[in-house]
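Field: COMPLEX_INPUT
Field: COMPONENT_COUNT = two
Field: RESIDUE_TOTAL = 610
Field: MODE = joint
Values follow.
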Amino acid sequence: MASDPRSAAIDAFARRHRYHRLEAVPWLIAVALYFALPGYLPLGAQIFATILFVLSADLVLGYAGIVTLGQAAFFGTGAYAAGILAANGWGEPLSGLLFASAMAAVVGFLSGLIILRTSGLALLMQTLVVATTLYEAANKASFLTGGDDGLQGMEVWPIFGLFRFDMFGRVAYVYCLVVLFLGWLVARQLVHSPFGRSLTGARENTGRMHAIGAPVAFRRLIVYTISAALAGASGALIAQTTSFVGLTSLSLERSGNALIMLIIGGVGRLYGAFIGVPLFMVAQDRFSEVDPVYWYFWLGLLMVVVVVFARGGVLGLFERFWR
Amino acid sequence: MIEAIVSIGFHGLAFAMVLYLISVGLSVTMGLMGFVNLAHGVFAMLGGYVMTRLMNRYGVPFALALPAAAIASALASIPLERVLYRRFYGGEELDQVLLTMGLIFMSVAGATYVWGPLTQHMEPPAWLSGQVDLGFRSFPAYRSFLIVCGAVLVTGLWLGLERTRFGAQIRAAVDNLRMAQSVGINTSRLFMLTFALGSGLAGLGGALGADLLAISPSYAMQYLVYFIIVVAVGGLGSIRGPFVAALLIGVADTGFKYLLPGLGAFFIYALTMVLLLWRPQGLFGRA
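Field: COMPLEX_OUTPUT
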């Protein structure tokens, strides 16, 4: 019966969510780099946290098709939540991470209730408005957030009371890697579940998903909330490992950068973040020091070029190559 | 009390005119081509730079620098439309957003390279500085000029859209693109001209409003939220919608910032969210 095209198709559907050997590659590389490049561990930790952020953007953008310019709202909420907690006498990192993630999820749920009722430009505008409002709020509430100067005086305790965050970034590296791994597991399970499939369905043809009785609006709200929680966790990771939170964590630039990293890697592919973020951040580490202003010019040019010529990013190019 | 209301109304109206001139092109582009042009503010910024540079560096009189700004923005937009924008009309929103975000990033660096990182200073000409006396009260002359200028342009735009052949073609294409094409309207040319017109108006708005929305390299990013609020609240593809929205946002923003300095912006954002909760398609949008 294996030659029967129908059962072959069913097989393919049944197999597509199983773990593939190649999926281990990023994690093996991450472990290998810990030993190979001990001088770059702090940058590595930042990269992992940012991958988690871009992964959260991929969930709403790539899978649910919600075009957002306000993902930084959740990143910043998480960062400030973890930061304020640690600056005010509770520096336990794991509970701080959970708290930050929960706060971001609350913001995501509440704003999603309003935002997701619209579509197109109105939706885009409201995501931007939510992020801008939080930015202004953080700027004004300087007694809590430090305003323009950023939040200082965070004291993050050792993880489990054992592993102190060291200046070489070893603990930070492992911490961010483990959290990223867990976040990735969540995202992977999500997109391969019937729930995730129905999101893709709603993205491709909303009317038809309504017609077969899928609660489209509710599911979009759920994925928006989950994505916010992941983005919040990412913000908390950056706050805890750098002991600093600045206003830029809520800025439009951050949301925009997430979009860039996502399209460089490839949208809606779950692994786009794993390729786009390291490429972007290593390039930024190299070039933005030399030329912080004109870095944005090349960045913008890259975005235009990718959109015009390389839809699907690096992963899209690979897919085209393999076929 | 009356004094405050008159003052808010006056300055709000001036701000609304600037917002409208900049945003109307965006609204028409959205409605006509189905293109989310986040980089629309770049053309307004360009207009502002062209005017301030012409006036401050080369001593060109205001009355000449202003149309030059509009023409420069319109001309600059045509190659962009032909080479980049056109490919994505009616396409995926995500592509359009990414493309135009890329253009914004490039404009920030480009403006810093050409004009430097500082805010450009705009000095109204002698005949527009000082106050004009309207009998019961005197008003700042430049702001009054803004309002008059805006009112004239709005009327012209309205008449142009309602009474000319070109306007009829735009209305036809917004209503039903395929039908418009099949009765022989050259929509590709129409798109280009409309886009150039919208960008020219944005350039004019950016130049006129250079003292309200300060001209600096991050212009397109900094004020993006204002422009798309006007369009989203007004409804896409109309000329009237953004006007009402600009009036509402301009006056409300001025009022809140006057009455509650420090918290002003929050009320605008809250107002916007409430309006869209009530009418997700915008005030004059079609469902």
